[in-house]
């Protein structure tokens, strides 16, 4: 059961829609135009539309038959706050905003499936088409849940798909259990006592305190957690000082922590706090430790992965159905999976060769790295009928008549 022929036939129109969204990127909770495009398309296919969940979210409801069972299919809609380097016709029209993660393509793939499901209706139950805002740091999934997503649209499971550069074009990849990590941020403010740099004994220098802390944090990873547990502590910013001949009053450290389990996260937060306070005290300084939990780990459910793998094999074959190597990146689909069974999976975006059609001065594509969150990125439009077919077959399998 390969890619659906009707979706191949609709590919040019869906590609044009994807590129229109790419040209008009909107940041988290600002996806008004994008939501309008989505809602108009769904309504044109006779699909019931609900708007406003999580501020700008859209939910399409497609019912058929009499079964009470329901499945949720999710696509994210927001762009990133970065400037695009490409200059092709559908490049971003807004400086400082870019679809550099493929959410435009995710939206197009789910719209492709919506059109086909509305046309064929070979399922018994309800398909909820969840177009989510604010995945890029805004926690749009959490906000949709707060607005009653699962109460208003009760579903038995929910699935999410993301394109993945580097995986073979049109392949699918999934794993059981943890697939993406939690995302958390920390900020430490060390307060010492400023002095002349030639007279350091008159002050308390916060800089060596910060250096000691940065080194000590890595011992949490190597000595406090089990070696078989995954975790990353990354200090990414140290800010201090205004002049070369002045010992500063204060120093600020910032960074991120990523784990696959909440137990490991709890331990890391506790140990970082202890090291912060005791290290500062040992030097006669004081410190304030702030830790903010953003997204929890994305943990797939075994039974839903099994169903998904079967559908993947039907659509692209066993050779193109791959095991995903979990990544320490984060995804707010995790909030959905805390509430409902489901799975988050990848569709291969290829290695960037699809951009050769744009290559050259006349077409304006910068053939730099085609990786996520890169100013040269562009979604591979050849995936639209492939991803759309997967969504259709998954809904049909999940809601197969008894």
UniProtKB/TrEMBL annotation:
This is M20 aminoacylase family protein. Transmembrane segments: none annotated. Keywords: Hydrolase. PANTHER family: METALLOPEPTIDASE, PUTATIVE (AFU_ORTHOLOGUE AFUA_6G09600)-RELATED, PEPTIDASE M20 FAMILY MEMBER. Pfam families: M20_dimer (PF07687), Peptidase_M20 (PF01546). Residues 185-277 form the Peptidase M20 dimerisation domain. It comes from Ideonella margarita. It comes from the Bacteria.
